[in-house]
Amino acid sequence: LDMCAFVVFLFLFSFSLSCRAAPLDPATYATLGNLVDGAASSGSYFFNSTSPSSRPSSSSQICTLTLPNANVIQGVFVTNNYLGVCVFTFSNINLLTSVATFTGKGSAAIALLSKTNLVIGPNVLISLPGANGVNDYLNANAIPQGGPGGFAGGGTHGAHLGEGPGRPTVAFWAGSGGSFGGSGGKAGRSSTDCSNNPGNVGPAYGNLLANLVGGSGGSACCNIGVQGGAGGGAIELGASNSITFEGGVNTNGGKPYFQSESDSSRIFQGGGGAGGAVLLHAINDIMFGAQARITAIGGSVQLGQPNQYSDGGGGGGGGRVLIQASQIFSYSVKPLSAIINVGGGRGNNVTQKVGGKGGDGGAGIVTYSGVMMYDLGTTSALRLATTSALNLATTSTMNSATTSALNSATTSALNSATTSALNSATTSALNSATTSALNSATTSALNSAT
């Protein structure tokens, strides 16, 4: 009985590791050093999370990050219920002034963690989309691969219906879209497939706190070498203190291939890949700058013409975005809903001579966990000062920068009065408690400011 209890304990313990209910903790992993602005910080970064097997393991999984100077950093592989995560942890990440692009390939999702602050500047782009479909009769052995953490699109050389938990269940003369946060769009003629089986799109799925995973692929066109789009990848950005995000993340789903007959009378097309996943988490604050943009959009289908014989392909479902912090700020002239886009892909909904319309993919899901602190229209001086203060992570710097920014943003009359009545802190205004001096300065300042 003791041995059985021990086995059950091991099973439950291993299950809890693979089904975490919280973001990855940077304190858990050894540091790879600092990733900060400098002479070698600008340029191209490349993640490789390729697995040599369909069931990734720590012994076989590749987890590397190639830096702009060609140095290669080895990450840590963490398993989950899907394709796993390659984790890269640094003591500090500050790419505020760098001009850089992060791309990648592979099966496992990507996590970029900081043990202190994480700063992504306006000229930094993290791009992990799903691949677009091609004509795989003309591209031997080509399979549209998902972004890291995402799933492949359908094709002759791979899974015909695409891959992933939300892949379509059928394809006819057009493909349906993959699902993730939102459901994929149904193809215009998917009531039966080539074997007369009932057809439908795959289910929406996912919980980013439990499993970091990307979108599912769209299906290919039946008996035609027209591929579906691949699912978008998955990226986790985490910090033990605060995140300042002014850059971009792209985990969009891939577009399907569009094949037209020689006389353009009929077209064939696959379904769009689902958008991927973006998870941002910090213990304290997450601040979004004016140029921040996050997209996990489903792959769209090319529109046909009304005079064509065609079944319309379905668009990919939107992805998932989760923002978790004590406080969430937007220092932009637009709300976070305009910064984050998890829309579904457009289906081919043009009315054809023969054939049905393809459906649009459903919108994905955006989740906020924390106190929302919108601050629309705040001056750039305050935003920059606050960003600088948080990067230095010192109270005195924050107070000084905030005071300076606020003072500069006030009217000249109020500043003048504040300087004479308060900032000088002289005995003539406050310490002497002279009523006439204080009242005169206060009245003059308030009347002038008003």
Topology:
Blueprint (H helix, E strand, L loop, with lengths): L1 H17 L15 E3 L6 E7 L14 E3 L5 E3 L1 E3 L6 E6 L1 E4 L4 E7 L2 E6 L3 E3 L3 E4 L106 E6 L3 E3 L2 E3 L7 E3 L5 E4 L7 E6 L2 E4 L4 E3 L13 E2 L9 E11 L5 H4 E2 L23 E10 L5 H13 L2 H15 L2 H12 L3 H5 L3 H15 L1
Parallel strand pairs: 1-7, 2-8, 6-9, 7-10, 8-11, 9-12, 10-13, 11-14, 12-17, 13-18, 14-19, 16-20, 17-21, 18-21, 19-22, 21-23
Antiparallel strand pairs: 2-3, 3-4, 5-6, 15-16
Helix pairs in contact: 3-4, 5-7
Can you walk through the features of this model?
The chain is an alpha/beta fold and 450 residues long. It contains seven helices and 23 strands. The strands form three sheets. Strands 1, 5, 6, 7, 9, 10, 12, 13, 17, 18, 21 and 23 form a twelve-stranded mixed β-sheet that branches. An eight-stranded mixed β-sheet has the order 4-3-2-8-11-14-19-22. The longest helix has 17 residues. The radius of gyration is 27 Å and the shape is globular. It starts with a helix and ends with a helix.
